[in-house]
Amino acid sequence: MQNAETVLGVLRERGRCGLPCNELYRQLFNPQLYLLAYGRIYANHGAMTPGVTSETVDGMSQRKIDRIIEAMRHERYRFHPVRRVHIPKKNGKTRPLGLPTWSDKLVGEVIRLLLEAYYEPMFSDRSHGFRPRRGCHTALREVDHTWTGTSWFIEGDIADCFGSLDHQVLLSILGEKIHDQRFLRLVRNMLTAGYLEDWKWGATLSGAPQG
After folding, report:
1. 8 Å CB contact between 159 and 95
2. What's the domain range around 77?
3. pTM summary value
4. Residues in domain Reverse transcriptase (predicted)?
5. Please, are residues 79 and 104 in contact by the beta-carbon 8 Å criterion?
6. pLDDT tens per residue across span 68-101
7. Are 37 and 69 in contact (CB under 8 A)?
8. Chain centroid offset of residue 98 CA
9. Residues pairing with 97 in the sheet
10. Distance between CA atoms of 45 and 49, rounded to whole angstroms?
C-alpha cells in the first residue's frame, strides 16, 4: 500500500501532464489517506460539533476507518444528511451551514485531498481563492507587483454561489478528466444526501453544503 504523499504526488504529476484519472475510487481503500485527512481536520473548531448523529472526532479509531474502507470496497458507504444551521452575516442576513457527521467529514476530506492534488496544477496562476498557500495576501501581492498603472478595479460577487451549484454541470466537469464512474457516483451521493433542519429532511437538488 503506497503512503498518502506518494499517492497525492502521483495525482499531482498526472494533473500537471493533463492525463486522465481512471482509477481514483480505489484510492479510497488506502488507510494512510484517512490518517492524513484526520490529521488535517481533527484540530478544527468544528471537530467536536456533531452532525445529525452524536459522532465527533472523539469516536475516531483505526477500526472505524477500516469499517469505512470496507463499505467503500462494496460501494455501501452512505452519506448522512447534513445538519443545517444558520449563521449571521455582516449584512444582517444569514448563511446556511451544513454540519456533516464525523465519518462523512473524514471521507469528504479524503475526497478533497485527492481532487486538490489532481486539479491544483491545472488552475490559473491568477486564481488565489480556496487554494493551498494562496489567499488575500498573495492576491494583493500580485496586484502590487504586476498591475502597475491600474487606477480602478471592478468588484463582483456570485450570489449564492455554493448554494446554487448545478450538480450535473459539476459532475460533467469532473467527468471530463475523471474516468471513474464509482468515484463520480460517490461525489453525487455526497451532494444529494440532503439536510435536516428542525429535524425535517430536505432534498439538496443543487448546491454544495458549507460546513
Report:
1. no
2. 4-147+163-202
3. 0.86
4. 68-211
5. yes
6. 999 999 999 999 999 988 888 888 788 888 889 9
7. no
8. 13
9. 85
10. 8
